[in-house]
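Checklist before submission:
- one chain only
- standard amino acids only
- sequence pasted in full

Submission:
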Amino acid sequence: MTKTAFSIIEIAGLRVERDAVILARIDWRVERGENWVILGANGSGKTSMLRVLTGYMPATAGEISALGETYGRYDWRDLRTRIGMVSSSIHEMMSGNETALKAVASGRSAQIGYWGEMTPGDRRTAASILRRVEALKLRDRPWGFLSQGERQRVLIGRALMARPKLLILDEPCAGLDPVAREHFVQFIQRLSRRRGGPALVLVTHHVEEITPAFSHVLILKGGRVLAKGPRDRVLTSANLSAAFGTPVRLSRRSGRYALAVRASRRVAV
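Returned file contents:
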């Protein structure tokens, strides 16, 4: 696999096998300037892809590179500090008494919790990032008193503290009510417009969360690539019907998507 200076992610011939095949023949490449959605039904392999990419699940075969480094030839613990991650697993590890400001500052070392007193520099940087993620008013509020949507913004701020080149959002709208989800989706759209920001990878099974910020889509089914490429070419009713195993109709309005499940035909008995 040939690397380029512009590669964010390169995966070739990826296979993960335990008691059964989890991922098979995955080829995927993310270029600089692209923001991707990984889309698929539950059990399609989305979470396994993330675990492989972040080094928590070893591959059975294939080659994986991220930010120009190849798995097996580079210390993946160091690479993780350059990849921002927002997921439910981080939610569960946060201390209820830690303020939003300290939670963001802890992202510099990719550790959970900020030990000791914050340096003036970390305090200024964390406050600046809270402003960037539209959450500065939360700086002194403890984690335990933040809403789900506020926590997601703080976790994105925490991920940005280390100035990552890649930001992975693993089902970031899970647990949000419809209004909070829409506010958060619009926030991600605004965040994507900032110059010098990281490449974005959104993992979801809801097309409603896909905004114009995302240029490309990777659809998984049964641990395999069903379709991949530019959003407007890949995101179709036919591909989504195949992905979810039932006839669906995709509609688009003002740059946003909606999915409707087609009524099944009743069989006379």
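Reviewer check: The chain has a mean pLDDT of 87.
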